[in-house]
Amino acid sequence: MYVISALIIGLMILPLLASLAFMPYFTRETLSFGITVSEETFHSEPLRKLRRQYAGINSLVSILLIVCCLLVVSLWPEEVSKEIAFTFTILGIVLFSLMMNVIFHLKMKRIKSNLPTSHDKRQTLSIDTRFRQQKLVFSNIWFILHGIIAAISATWTLSYYDRIPGQLPMKFDFEGHVTRFADKSVLTVLFPNIMQVVMIVIFAFVNWSILNSKQQIGPGDPAESAARNAIFRRRWSFFNMTASFIIILLFSFIQFNMILSFNTDMLILVSMLTPVLIIIGVLVLTLTTGQGGSRIGPKRAPSSAQPYDDDAYWKLGGIYFNPHDPAIFVEKRFGVGWTINYANKKAWAVMIGLISLILAASLLSA
Fold first, then answer.
1. Helices in 76-159 by DSSP H: which ranges?
2. 3-state DSSP percent of the chain in helix, strand and coil, to 5
3. Three-state SS for 337?
4. How far apart are CA 12 and CA 308, in angstroms?
């Protein structure tokens, strides 16, 4: 089981490593390490070299961290917790990537200050007044199907409550051994359903935020940019719903295992393969879509049009703080996806609400 678990962990880490190391290639072509530039400047040789440096350093350090982790768990298998070792490896990869983001953002800031076009050319802000009339996301009505599955799972489990053993395994180690049991109760038996409801609420909210996020259109070809952005939102909306469906099915599988007594190895295998499948899906979608739809469709000649420069509102290139902007959700400048406007009180209310929901669910499992 250890070899299989290690392979699955590897399948989780490698897509994460790739998405972090090559992140500058997935962003919009009007952004370089969180700094606004024209498409023409983005494709210039100095910035190409900067992206290669970032990807090379990030990849090298991440691979070294993984190798060190494997050596530690191989040389001291009894003394070192494999879960802790792999957790710290992933944490190290993410933290190093964040540090690199800041370093290269500051470097890009210095480069931009020496660009003659950054101040002399007129900036362009493109807006499509018909953008919201398009089908940007799939309807949240589809989450009713997820709720029906959760309800069937809960009903079926309660109907076989007497067949469930008095002690339920709640946590497993890296090698498949049970490390924590819980006494059978209605709460412990229905906990997977509670998590299903929490996941449905979170994923439905994410879908709503994709729909209501701020419009961002490139100045080079506004019509094409708007069309790509609409596809970008629909693809992530579909993936969001698919990921939610897979997780709902996982919790039902865990619940049925209480009654049908599936093989423990099978339970662990399915539980670990589920996040692997989702992570690989994220990487594939990122590669084929890019931020804002930047990787959709054929490439055209880079535009020299200077996009609207709001760098002053992006702290360290990744934290959006604009008290003059009523938008709650905006596209990330690092990576693919969305972030919040930290100057908007509604955004803080949303974030605190989601964190409270997750903490409440975690406390129920303790």
1. 82-113, 117-120, 143-159
2. 65, 10, 25
3. coil
4. 37
123 forms beta bridges with 306
And the tokens for 58? 């990030």
Residues 217, 128 contacting (CB under 8 angstroms): yes
Q: How far is Cα 171 from Cα 173, in angstroms, rounded to an integer?
A: 7
Beta-strand pair 329-331/319-320? unpaired
Residue 264 Cα to chain centre, angstroms: 29
What distance in Å separates the CA atoms of residue 178 and residue 264, rounded to the nearest whole number?
Answer: 9
Integer Cα distance of 192 and 190 in angstroms? 6
Residues forming a β-bridge with 169: 181
Within 8 A by CB and 6+ apart from 63, the residues are 17
State the residue for tokens 């392979």: 7
Per residue of the chain (366 residues), give pLDDT as tens: 555 666 667 677 788 888 889 999 999 999 999 999 999 999 999 999 999 999 999 999 999 988 888 888 777 766 667 778 888 888 999 999 999 999 999 999 999 888 765 455 666 666 766 778 788 999 999 999 999 999 999 999 899 888 888 777 666 665 556 666 777 788 888 888 999 999 999 999 999 999 999 988 888 778 888 889 999 999 999 999 999 999 999 999 988 887 777 667 777 778 888 888 998 999 999 999 999 998 998 887 888 888 888 899 999 888 999 999 999 999 999 888 999 999 999 999 988 988 888 888 777 666
The structure's pTM equals 0.87
How far is it, in rounded angstroms, from Cα 243 to Cα 282?
10
- CA nearest neighbour of 202 among 241, 161, 153: 241
Rounded CA-CA distance 320/193 in Å is 36
